[in-house]
């Protein structure tokens, strides 16, 4: 990505192979507007074709990750002429968000979520499609939709994939809000930091691991993980064996083996990556 795209709701900074994405609507606790959804979708589309970016780090400005959907957009949709089915403005608003979440979920890059403050609704869904999620001490997670008379339509499937049906039922049907420790116990996040300093240390450790792992092998592994449970195991393992053979004979497999034998870092770990 020679030039970072211009965004109104996001702050973008490139640090080596990592793209730092800060959701920047602190006046509404980083609530997710249609514009933010569009900008995130465009960004992930561009990142997908950029070999210089291997990790995308998402966090929020002003002490909050994302407080869910934007009420102004909801009001705007309500003010539009009602259509039927997929012509309904609310359908289009909700589905656009779901498409973006699916895009983040299936990205070939390593997606890291740094969660602080409000991690609600759409923000909760975004955390649930990250590959690595780290929570700060102030983080509060929840699916409050049912308490507002609506449903977590686009995030519920990803929450089930993240923590299983049993726990997703409890969170969604009771509209619960939980703290970082419980979110970690459930598997929503992987680590909980006790301070801002520790949060940044955990992020740096994760990015260090990304640096040491081969980018194509990482992307292939992520794609393989997403296929589990969606197709017959024997066929999946047959295809995985073919991909393994191609990987070990390929440039990364050859370089990784040589680096191990020569007790050095592989080339992809260099600062030029």
TrEMBL record:
<dbReference type="Pfam" id="PF00378">
    <property type="entry name" value="ECH_1"/>
</dbReference>
<dbReference type="InterPro" id="IPR029045">
    <property type="entry name" value="ClpP/crotonase-like_dom_sf"/>
</dbReference>
<dbReference type="GO" id="GO:0003824">
    <property type="term" value="F:catalytic activity"/>
</dbReference>
<dbReference type="InterPro" id="IPR014748">
    <property type="entry name" value="Enoyl-CoA_hydra_C"/>
</dbReference>
<comment type="similarity">
    <text>Belongs to the enoyl-CoA hydratase/isomerase family.</text>
</comment>
<dbReference type="InterPro" id="IPR001753">
    <property type="entry name" value="Enoyl-CoA_hydra/iso"/>
</dbReference>
<protein>
    <submittedName>
        <fullName>Enoyl-CoA hydratase</fullName>
    </submittedName>
</protein>
<dbReference type="InterPro" id="IPR051683">
    <property type="entry name" value="Enoyl-CoA_Hydratase/Isomerase"/>
</dbReference>
<dbReference type="GO" id="GO:0008300">
    <property type="term" value="P:isoprenoid catabolic process"/>
</dbReference>
